Amino acid sequence: MKKILLALALTISTVGTFSAQAQSPMTNGEVRRVDKDAKKLTIRHGPIVNLDMPAMTMVFQVKDPVMLDKLNAGDKIKFIAEKSGDAYVVTTIEVTK
Length: 97
Ligand SMILES: [Cu+2]
What we know:
A hairpin with a 2-residue loop joins strand 4 (76-84) and strand 5. The chain contains 1 helix and 5 strands; from the N terminus they run αβββββ. By secondary structure, the protein is an alpha+beta fold. The longest helix is centred in the N-terminal third of the chain and has 21 residues, at 2-22. Helices cover 22% and strands 42% of the residues. The chain has one domain: CATH 2.40.50.320.
C-alpha cells in the first residue's frame, strides 16, 4: 500500500512539474474567496494568455481540492488555468510573497 501511495505521489509531482514547464505561462492573481465546500476559488486575475481572457475577477474550479488548503483570501498567487467543458479549472497554483 505504501508503495502504491509513493508511486501515486511521484506521478502527481511529475505531472505538476510537466504542466508548469510545458504549458502556458503562469498568470498573476489575487485570491478573493476560497470555497472549500464547493471546491471553488474566486480569483482576481490578470490576462490569461492561453485562455485568451482579459483581466477580471471570476470563479474557478480546482483540479484537486487539496490545492485550497494552503490558500487564503488576499493571497497573491501565480496560477495556470485550463478550460474543461463549461468550466475553468485551475491546474497549478503557487502563492507568491
Ligand atoms: Cu477570467
